[in-house]
Amino acid sequence: MRRGRERYWAGGMEQDKINAYMTLYTALVEIAKAAAPMIPFMTEDIYRNLVCSIDKDAPESVHLCDYPVCDESMIDPELEEQMDRVLQIVVLGRAARNTSGIKNRQPIGEMLVKADAVLPEYYIRIVEDELNVKRVTFTDDVSQYTDYEFKPQLKTVGPKYGKQVGAIKAALTSIDGPAAYDELTKTGEIRLTEAGENIILTEEDLLISVTQMEGFAVETGNDITVVLDEHLTPELIEEGLLREIVSKVQTMRKEAGFEVMDRITLTYVAEPEICDVFEAHREEIQKDVLATDIFPNELSGYRKEWDINGHKVVLGVEKNE
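Above: the chain sequence. Below: its structure as tokens.
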């Protein structure tokens, strides 16, 4: 539903908007039918709201409907595979954001992705949108952003190789970390010919620590590595402030009990940095929060003080009569 939000809110009633609504409607009704035996009351409420309210000839209860039958012609294996890869990259990207401490509403300039396959452009745009990243770039080499340090896990390596543990420890300190990690990921083992013949270490034999280049957050999983560039330009910081302002106003609209389509007047008292954002993005803010006008240095209606990325601001929202 979140991915289709812009389609639902598009102006007019274009075919794409109709398609989005009908897809959502079909999904909700069919899921209600399929889930009815497990959650009978919730699905009954959904069904009666969505179906019985518009189709007087429909069965009066979801529990009187036929159970859904799979339409195999609708299955798209390529779409499922690509979206599964999108999900894996997005999960890693969010983990990198958490590591860096950068808020989700703060745009980021670039994220590098190392994977065994490059996503088509359409799916790259989805990743960028989900992670609020301006540019996602696929690359074959991220070794300059991260390094891996290996030590032997003595409780497993000791019984296997005895007196050779010292040589194994020395060999692990001198290997190419990224190359060794790639080998371990692809084959499940590392061969250390430097420490002696037939020295083979698996993941359980190793203690692995990751070091990252300052200014970059790195996450790895499922043969995918993402590198998030933590450097923020003044333009990115300004856009982050803009998104925070819009979010806070939307929160206040809900708290004040306004209807979704109510037009409002927005007032504010803020520090110079926030005032500059209001002035530079006045029309965009008005469009996003349905404000007919914005007035600085005065407050009216429902008021609330906020800390927006370290900047104090007091906002006021008032429903137009």
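The first strand starts at residue 108 and ends at 114.
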